[in-house]
User: Fold this.
Amino acid sequence: MRKILKKILFTSFVGILAVMTGCSSGFSDKSGDGSTTNIHLYRATYNIGQTDERELGLVQDAINDKLQKKGSKVSVTIKEIPNEEYADAVNIALSKQEADLFWTASWWNTIGTNDLYQQKLVYDLTGLLKNTALYKSMPEWYWEAAQYNGRDYFVPVYKEGAEGYDIKALKVNADKYGLELEHLFDEKAELADNLRKLEPYLKKAKADGIRYPYLGRSTGMFQRFGMDYYDFFEQPLMAMIGINLKTNEVENPIQSKEFADYCKVLGNWGEKGYLNVDEEIGKTSSELVCQTQNWLVSWWTDIPNNAESFGRDGNQEETFGHLTQNYINSHTATGSCFAVSAACDEEKAKACIEFLGYLYTDVEIGNLFTYGIEGTDYVLKNGKVDRTAESGLKNPGTLYNHSPWESTSIEAVNLLSDEPDDKLARYKSFNEAAVISPASGFRFDHSSVDAQYNALISLYDQYGFLLDTGGVPEKDVDAAIKKYQEAMDEAGYQEVFNAAKEQYDKWKKQKK
Assistant:
């Protein structure tokens, strides 16, 4: 009931916001003598529980001092919100027009990029970006991947801009069973055939008492492992609609041979005990298992430097085998971005663009916004940021501490002490080697079929999740898919499919 009430209140805020003009009521838009445009910026904290307001004030003052010395007529007031409170705080700030610029991401609920776009809460920056320092700071394809139907509503944080998936293995167990992931998979082979290459090693691990030969972490993976076949529309739909990458046409992947074959492999593994079916379908299979030695392989989202995973899993060495190609699509660039409130006027929007231009290109400002005050929050050693216990500081990283992925371009900050010297080169080659999906930049507006759309999402939990995680025995997969499709059809699948196809075909024609 509390969640429903909050949603109703937020919807009413949106209606009020739509008829308002200006921005940041209750705050002064100008500072000092009125010559400086002040931006109110909201961001989440991930690395510390509670913001130290004094240290945040020092960071803010230092940023504004740098801006002034560079001749900018823009200043910034920064509001930090703990991660778990962030969505509610931004919703309220937008309704009261107290946020001009704020951080968001495609995966957030209620303030995700889709929510913001559909409710017209973000400023259309399209006509203001070209020829600015901000626009020039990133490749054009990166901007295009973050667009909504050809318009620029979001400023992506420049980092890895592609998505692909690996199989990772705990090295001590991989060595024990002779598993060499680096050379196991064939990029020309079908998904199911590549997965079957793991079976001899899963069998050995099972016989040896390893509890989790394959650890799925209660995550349906066809929408991820099937990336070489389809660009899937949206995460909530979980592979029900996608673009066939060979034909560039909208299709139903649930009816594909690739989906059936994948589900049969997982179902076979479940029957043989290569994966823990009860935990997978019970959604209790945990990533924390990777910190033990009771597993052999699991899935991994490919990044430019997979060795960065060291430290996540109990400081245990892991090896990786690339299972899919990496793709640039409509979701890869919006995993971290900034947005300007739709309530801002053009002057305020331009000020936000100017500030982000400095943030994305100036290392001094980038370091301040990300790492804090040098000498208090971190030290520079050999040109790298050290905020570890060995830094020599009293409590490094405890008063102010952010990460580049949610702060600024990776090119606008110093490297961390544990990052490789060639990190930027790795990211550049990672992005440039990725395949650009023909549907990159397309966004499905399901508002005309919302009831059917939401019904389909709940059906995934009832039918699709079992298929997707090994909960259906191999011999029963075809019948389960048929039953799944019948339930989808009854819930209005064809109406959603037709709406998606109509929109994509229109977008495709306009793109030409």
